[in-house]
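Let's practice the habit of predicting before peeking. Look at the sequence and jot down your guess about where helices and strands might fall. Then scroll down.
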Amino acid sequence: MYCKKEGRSLKGLPVQFDFLGFSFRPIMTKLRKGGFFLQYDCKMSRKSKKRILKDLRGMNIHNKTQSNLQDLAFMLNLKIRGWINYYGKIKRNSLKPVFYYLHHRIIKWILNKYKRFKRSRVLAVKWLRRITEDYPNMFYHWAFCYQLT
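Done guessing? Here is the structure:
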């Protein structure tokens, strides 16, 4: 690893690296007593997010109109539990975009399944919010405050 020091003219290699699905990059942290400290920040890598989103896209949740919401929850809860247990150990906030995408897939499923919503995303979101309030443990991530925003 190249040491970036003031006064050196050489360009260093990229200091961000991925390891086991996490991305590490240096950040400067301000100390309480004054001064700064260089440490490495760890969060879910972009490659991992892309892979998870690709898995969700490949499941074609929005086309499974023959099943009900409990079936979808049963199908997804094992994967969701694994993602939270692995990636959520370090930073739970890094999973927010994944669950945001999952919620929009579920809304698309609602629009395809129930004709009473008639392409009204607002009504579908209200219905899903009511489901999250009535059944907070249906999907595993709802119990960890990853509810619909």
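How did you do? Residues 43 and 91 are 6 Å apart (CA to CA).
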